[in-house]
Specification:
binds guanosine-5'-diphosphate, four-stranded mixed beta sheet, Adenylosuccinate Synthetase, Chain A, domain 3, alpha/beta, 22 strands, 23% strand, 422 residues
Length: 422
């Protein structure tokens, strides 16, 4: 596996973290290329159970270099907390296995506050933000009103730049939202407490990656969220504010000229969605409650759940350019007599197989077909041929719809709970 991207095909939370953690045995470098600390990649391994927010999920593998690329929303507050947590739990993090791009923009103290203020202003029209400051961060980045991590190496320039931005942002905080302004003292404290500790990890990661690529090191690009949350091709405006697609990986990583050889798309065996926006395949009532309970689909609040959405998954595979699939959480469906699948949408009385324009999604209804369940525990199975026929049929059906081979089937959250095919 030379240059490989591991990406989400659905709405996020597909189980990318556990797949990266598994696959890193075959890689030398893992790079996060977009998104911020709003990720929650769950990883269970010899060090314990972790919810990785900003760090690449390769941090647990000895010999793997982990890079935070220029495309991420670099939140020093969250990163410092995460680094400390991992160090306490015995995960070695050093300048040799963790590198931060000097071109990554800093998520600044007002971004989180602006996120909260704007969601409050929107009231019942809110986007369902995770309130981590991601949308204000990326809009400021495109306005060229953030600070590059590498500017920390030039303290006088850094402080002046920060002060200029603060003056501008305070006009918005106080004038638009009637909130309290940020003070210089608060900013100085933030620099001391959160920026200084991450400074040793900041370097020219583009040069590092170029050298790694030249030396035929195996590089894994790790995405956050999924295709349907992509800013350009997702269910806008209920997307995230960055590009979650594999084709953005070379740019967001700092290796703009890289060619990606393989794109592993992660699909969950059923659907889940956090936050607002259209979710055509959504299930309600007892059936939904059961799936949510067995799949442990809670994130502070109960997640929205539904059967696998083959319309959305096929679209996700297309826009991701996925070359192969990792199917996760198949074990969660083991208790079902019949397994529902959303195979088409009904729009204005017509059945469609394509993903419609986002504004039409709210009018779509799911067309559901059912397959026979396998009704036995599969979490101990490691060999494809040992899977019940009904489970194999379910996997084959997904393959047919999305047009790609399912190469990994995950049947539990632990690293080893995996079935590999060919
Ligand atoms: P990510 O953001 O895409 O990495 O996904 P999350 O970590 O947010 O969500 C995946 C959840 O499912 C985590 O709690 C994982 O531990 C869990 N998980 C992953 N794969 C499996 C699986 O095959 N079976 C079960 N039962 N749980 C899984």
């Amino acid at each position: 596996m030379a240059a490989t991207a591991l990406v989400g095909i659905n709405w996020g939370d597909e189980g990318k973290g556990r797949m990266v953690d598994l696959l890193t045995e075959a890689f030398d470098v893992v790079v996060r290329f977009q998104g911020g600390a709003n990720a929650g990649h769950t990883v269970i391994n010899q060090y314990g159970e972790f919810s990785i927010h900003l760090l690449p999920s390769g941090v647990f593998r000895e010999g793997v270099v982990n890079v935070l690329g220029n495309g991420v929303a670099l939140d020093p507050v969250s990163l410092v907390a995460e680094i400390r947590d991992l160090l306490v739990k015995g995960v070695p993090l050093t300048r040799d296995n963790l590198m931060i791009s000097d071109r990554a923009s800093l998520l600044l103290p007002w971004h989180r506050e602006l996120d909260i203020l704007e969601e409050a202003r929107l009231k019942d029209k809110k986007y369902g933000s995770t309130k981590q400051g991601i949308a204000p961060f990326y809009s400021d980045k495109y306005q060229k009103k953030t600070i590059l991590a590498g500017e920390l190496f030039y303290p006088e320039h850094f402080r002046q730049h920060l002060k200029d931005l603060m003056e501008w942002k305070n006009m918005i905080l106080t004038g638009v939202y009637g909130a309290e302004p940020v003070t210089e003292e608060e900013l100085n404290q933030w620099v001391k407490d959160y920026c200084e500790p991450i400074r040793p990890f900041i370097r020219d990661t583009r040069a590092f990656l170029l050298e790694a690529d030249r030396n035929h090191k195996r590089i894994l690009f790790e995405a956050q969220l999924g295709a349907l949350r992509d800013l350009d091709f997702g269910i806008y405006p209920y997307t995230t504010s960055s590009n979650t697609l594999a084709s953005f990986a070379p740019i967001g990583s700092g290796l703009p000229g890289a060619e990606i050889d393989r794109v592993i798309g992660v699909i969950k065996a059923y659907s889940t969605c956090i936050g607002e926006g259209p979710f055509v395949c959504e299930m309600f009532g007892e059936e939904a409650d059961n799936l949510r309970r067995i799949g442990n689909e809670f994130d502070g609040v109960p997640k929205r759940v539904g059967p696998i959405d083959l319309v959305a998954s096929r679209y996700g595979v297309q826009v991701q350019g996925a070359t192969e699939i990792a199917l996760t959480k198949l074990d969660v469906l083991s208790e079902m007599d019949e397994i529902p699948l959303c195979v088409r949408y009904r729009l204005d009385g017509e059945e469609i197989e394509y993903m419609p324009f986002p504004a039409l999604l709210g009018k779509c209804e799911p067309v559901i077909e059912k397959m026979k369940g396998w009704k036995c525990d599969i979490s101990h199975i490691r060999d494809w041929w040992d899977l019940p026929e009904e489970a194999k049929a379910y996997v084959h059906c997904i393959e047919q719809y999305v047009g790609r081979v399912v190469r990994w089937i995950s049947v539990g959250p632990e690293r080893e709970s995996i079935i590999r095919r060919g």
